[in-house]
Amino acid sequence: MQRRFPLSKIAGYLFVIISSLIMFVPFLTTIFNSLKTYKQYMQFPPEWLPDPVKWSNYTQVWEQANFSSYTMNSVIVAVLSVVGTLLSSSMVAFAFARLRFPFRDTLFMIVLGTMMIPGIVTIIPQFIIFKNLGLLDSLAPLWILEWLGQPFAIFLMRQAFLSIPKDYEEAAKLDGCNPLQIYWKVFLPMCKPSLATLAVFTFMGKWNEILAPIIYLISEEHFTLPIGILSLRGQYKTDDQLLVAGALISLIPILIVFLFAEKYFVEGSKTSGLK
Amino acid sequence: MKKRRLLSTIGILGLLTAVLFTGCSSQPSITEGGQLELFLGYSSDPPTKKKMEEIIAKFQTSHPNIKIKTETAPYEDFYQKLTTQIAAGTAPDIWQSDGTKVFGFAQRGAIRDITDYVTKEINKDEVNGLEFNKDADGKYWGVPQGIQVGALFYNKDLFDKAGVSYPTADWTWDDLKAAAAKLTLDANGQNADDPAFDKNSVKQFGFTFFGSSRGAFNILKAYGGGVLDPTMTKSIIDSPENKKAVEWMADGMKRRLFPNPADLKAFQSNFKVFLSGASAMQIDIYAATTAMNGAELNYDVAPLPKGPDGKRFAPVIANSWVINKKANEQKVRAAQEWITYWTTSDEAQVEWTQVGEAIPVKKSVANSDKFLTNNTKPENKKVFLDSLAFAGTIDTNAVFAEWVKVFTDNLSELFMDKYGVEEYIAKTDQGIQKVLDDFFKK
After folding, report:
1. Were B334 and a residue from B21, B38, B39, B165 both cysteine, which residue would form a disulfide, CB within 3.0 to 4.6 Å?
2. What's CA B68's distance to the chain center, in Å?
3. pLDDT at residue A1, as a whole number
4. Other C-beta atoms within 10 Å of A112: how many?
5. What are residue B420's phi and psi, to 5 degrees?
6. Residue B362 region, left (φ>0) first, then alpha (ψ -120 to 50), else beta?
7. Is residue A1 part of a domain?
8. Distance (Å, rounded) from C-alpha B73 to C-alpha B84?
9. Which residue of B has its CA nearest to A235?
């Protein structure tokens, strides 16, 4: 008779349970830290459990970091950036992957080369450009660049497009599709997992972005959430427990986006339509 | 069908873009009501921001011709933003500058020389710290917004437990070290004077110092040494006085009376050692009282100890209002009105004192109950005012952050036993001189 729980299976489960606990403990510690008083947060060696449990940290951070007014700005920036990145970068990537034109590979290398330039170096020139465009102190500088193609996104999507067999392209051509239609009707739907990955990356990046909003925004009506949370930091005293609570609240939208995109990660294989 | 959806999506995005683009044009300097708009920047956290807004509202009531538009962010972000804005020519007309950055802005041509205004309109007898913004040529570059002075903070509970008497104004740095030995405890509760003391399991340190205003600089000065000469362009690290002071520090580190850089890292934040009650004493500035009161510490302050020859030194940082060099005359006048209001009106000074972040710049308010109140700790707040008598800047110049980095990085290596005192002195002297020459000789 075969054993219902072979040893290897038990060992496998144990391994998974232990590793997930190891992953979960820092997260749990963060939750506990968000419920401490400043005094308890400052204790060393630190105590794990909050005592007393200060739920009011969450209401306090909600008010002090202006969550209700800054969330909308963050949503606008993140959503426009995601849409912009997905559209512009996938279009450029399609050209690099599937179209033939002079200097195609050289241009692609130049695009990749821009990834080597540290962002901090381009801040002042970019700031001056946005100043001349009259876009300072508006949300535009935070998302407009995403509509002009992002090198990493182009690279990711190009790889995805390259992995699609040429047969699809030819079949579409036979059916009378022009390149734009092939891109929109055939290639994009087949690259949903890559698009989902890119969407999650872009959303996370923009949702948590700090430097650009700090540099470009002046009026509070335009502030995004990370500025709200970071404004709790003081030069001489920072209520770290409030910062942690704020960070946890701002994590929720990222979780939602991730859960939404997750199904695409495991969705069917791209080559299933081939014989 | 799908094509129509795509087109409508693009259409909506276009509309959104148009909506977001409107209202982005730069602000004119005269508002619709005929007021002059003054663009003012300051770094803040929630309590200081709230208070600053209240003071600005009061200023606008008494100065109906001026409307203040503000820009604020937490300390580091504020300066990051400001640096970009200065480069692009969009910096505020007036901003609150960290005291250590005033000469940096001045020597890079970002702020205005306000010597005329200061000498004619600010009464030196009424305002604290004006001289700290005067350069070697006698020019004034800023007017203090709030004063920070260093003192010796001590945890009364730890002193009581160890049966050691509290620090006094007569203490020398050697007295401090003797007390620190009694207050340094290992895991078994033995103090550092005990032969059974285990250096590898220190649970409580006697004395903490780190950084510039809270650090070794003050000890060098009390020993008669220092880092830069009065012109702020030459390193004077290589001196017998400095050597003695550095030996004093290195000895304390070896005996484990002071937390070394590795110990400080283990606490995640340098400040946490004292705040968590794991250190009996620390050099700190007045602003530290807000965190200490938040952590409900039972503490007080004493003047920083004397050097072997009786010399005293307390570090001072005069955070100041500075005016943008590019501001036009109208705005400069408005900015000066703001500075005069800030430094001379009881209203602004009393309000700002309540934040508890800085010593008031107006002497009459600093010497009143408003500042010396017993409602908040420390009890002995007068120590800060008394320390102004022997206070000096921490050799702030245009490359302050750069030389401090060389100074403290090398010190960390010395404290971690990477090299000895002589090598430290030689290496640091050379390193700091290079930083100075790179800026001043090019």
Report:
1. B38
2. 26
3. 52
4. 14
5. -95, 180
6. beta
7. no
8. 14
9. B75
pLDDT at res. B268: 84
Q: What is the mean pLDDT of chain A?
A: 90
Look at chain A and report how many structural domains it folds into.
2
Do B195 and B275 share a structural domain?
A: yes
Q: Of A119-128, A253-262, B358-367, where does the model show the most confidence?
A: B358-367
Match 């891109």 to its residue by tokens. A183
A134: number of Cβ within 10 Å:
13
pLDDT digits (tens, 9 = 90+) for A26-63: 999 999 999 999 999 988 888 889 989 999 999 999 98
Q: What is the largest CA-CA distance in chain A?
A: 79
A185 Cβ contact list (under 8 Å, min separation 6)? A172, A177, B2
CA atoms within 13 A on the CB side of B384: 34
* CA–CA distance, A197 with A160 (Å, rounded to integer): 11
H or E element at residue B315: strand B314-323
Report the C-alpha dihedral over residues A150, A154, A160, A166, rounded to 10 degrees.
150
* Predicted confidence (pLDDT) at residue B23 exceeds the cutoff of 80: no
Q: What angle do CA B235, B240, B244 make, to 5 degrees?
A: 110
ipTM attached to this prediction: 0.80
Same domain, A31 and A133: no
A215 contacts B81? CB cut-off 8 A? yes
Element (H, E) at B41: strand B36-43
Pick B81's closest partner by Cβ from A43, A83, A214: A214
Chain A residues lying within 8 Å of B81, measured CB to CB? 214-215
In this complex, do A44 and B278 lie within 8 Å of one another by their Cβ atoms? yes
Is residue B15 within 8 A of residue B68, CB to CB? The reply is no
Q: Is A136 close to B26, i.e. CB distance below 8 A?
A: yes
Q: How far apart are CA A224 and CA B291, in angstroms?
A: 27
> Residue A125: is the preceding peptide bond cis (ω within 30°)?
no
Residue B405: give the domain boundaries. 150-316+393-440
Mutate to test the interface with B, among A80, A218, A219 (most CBs of B within 10 A): A218
**pTM of structure:** 0.86
* A217 Cβ contact list (under 8 Å, min separation 6): A137, A139, A223, A224, A227
Is residue B149 a contact partner of residue B314, using CB atoms and an 8 Å limit? yes
Q: Determine the Cα–Cα distance for residues B40 and B321; give it in Å rounded to an integer.
A: 10
Inter-chain residue contact A138 with B13, CB threshold 8 Å: no
Count of CA atoms in the C-beta half-sphere (13 A) of A258 = 9
Model confidence band, residue B22 (pLDDT cutoffs 50, 70, 90):
very low
Kind and range of the H or E element at B152? strand B143-155
Mean pLDDT of A194-200: 92
Task: Say which amino acid occupies B80.
Answer: Q
**A223 vs A180: CA distance, rounded Å:** 38
Span B342-387, pLDDT tens digits: 999 999 999 999 998 999 999 999 999 999 988 899 999 999 999 9
Whether A51 and A122 map to the same domain: the answer is: no
Give the span between the Cα atoms of A154 and A88, in whole angstroms.
Answer: 9
The domain that contains A166 carries what CATH number? 1.10.3720.10
B377 CB near a chain A CB, below 8 Å? Answer: no
For the record, the structure tokens of B423 come out as 């090598």
Asked whether the bond before B378 is cis by omega within 30 degrees of 0, the reply is yes
- The answer, yes or no, to whether residue B10 has pLDDT greater than 70, is no
